[in-house]
Specification:
single chain, alpha/beta, 9-stranded parallel sheet, 10 helices, binds flavin-adenine dinucleotide
């Protein structure tokens, strides 16, 4: 199984994020999406896990299924808050046994904002646990260009991020809409001596209402002009316009030197395929 860290550095990576389907209908839609997006030959894909680590089993099932049936690696999102070290160590053992070598190590959020329970408080503790595993996993972590909502301030946020990222192989960011936020993040990490690759996460605004809600939870600033315009369009026109706006942002980030683009698909193929089509000539050798 390919380690994603081995793909970083030559040409930019292009990757997709999925979430595990909740029911049979959602599973069918994901199958169609996977089939469609596989034609773009992504560098890798990633699979989220539910809040508080609910559904680690469903994440694992989907990651293993993709790894065994597709030509690209799937990375498992793994949250640690609310879990014991024993539970997480068992999960790592079963990922290793299934040949899954790429893990996105996350704190996750305590249920209902309650006090932290379980053996973990921060993602760094999970990174350290993974690094002590006998199998050499590739470890990614989360970064928040506009600062994590629970961080006391920007300096505090960047210090903890640099400490965490220096123990990992690379980071993927929360979604954002202003490329200046990404540039500032990289400059601030460099000031702290952290030069690990940071792949920007790009969200096509196909469902403006839901994405507004996610943005308010994770501290992403919404560009009002873009959202207002998208909200007035028909579904077909909105998907097209959302893909164009996301492709423009992605291009700008690649021009700046981003090591790849990670697309939040919301399990829907249309916008992601269009973005891939627009970006592939610039990305080099892949084809559609
Ligand atoms: P951490 O890196 O632990 O940071 C959390 C907060 O703690 C930050 O404010 C940080 O500054 C602070 N902190 C860190 N270390 C210390 C310290 N030593 N002392 C004091 N404060 C400290 N959530 C899910 O439930 N499932 C998913 O699949 C999922 N996927 C994601 C994918 C990406 C790319 C991103 C960006 C986020 C994802 N999330 C997911 C959300 C994530 O779990 C939440 O943002 C969570 O609140 C923080 O996770 P983290 O790994 O960034 O935490």
């Amino acid at each position: 199984m390919t380690r994603i860290s081995d793909l970083l550095g030559d040409e930019p990576t292009f990757s997709f994020e999925f979430f595990p389907p909740a029911d049979e209908a959602a599973y069918k839609q994901l199958e169609t999406t996977l089939e469609e997006l596989s034609k773009t030959v992504p560098s890798f894909v990633s699979v989220t896990c539910g809040a508080g680590g609910a559904g680690h089993d469903r994440t694992q099932e989907l990651v293993v299924q993709i790894c065994t049936s597709r030509q690209f690696p799937a990375m498992a999102h793994l949250t640690c808050v609310g879990h014991s070290r024993f539970e997480i160590a068992e999960l790592l053992d079963s990922y290793a046994a299934a040949g899954v070598l790429n893990i996105l190590a996350l704190a996750g959020d305590p249920p209902d904002g309650s006090a932290v329970c379980g053996d973990f408080k921060y993602a760094l503790e999970l990174v350290e646990l993974i690094r002590n595993h006998p199998v050499s996993f590739c470890v990614a972590v989360a970064a928040h260009p506009e600062v994590h909502p629970r961080s006391r301030d920007r300096v505090f946020d960047r210090k903890h991020l640099a400490d965490k990222l220096n123990q990992a192989d690379f980071a993927i960011t929360q979604f954002f809409f202003d490329p200046a936020d990404y540039v500032q993040l990289l400059n601030e990490l460099a000031d702290l001596g952290c030069y690990r690759p940071v792949i920007p996460g790009v969200m096509p605004v196909i469902w403006p209402k839901s994405i507004r809600r996610y943005a308010s939870m994770n501290g992403s600033t919404v560009p009002e002009e873009l959202f207002a315009r998208l909200e007035t369009l028909s579904v077909a026109d909105r998907f097209k316009a959302a893909a164009e706006a996301a492709a423009e942002l992605a291009q700008c980030l690649l021009d700046f030197g981003a090591p790849g683009i990670h697309l939040y698909t919301l399990n829907h193929p249309q916008a992601s395929t269009q973005i891939a089509r627009e970006l592939f000539p610039k990305l080099g050798t892949r084809y559609l």
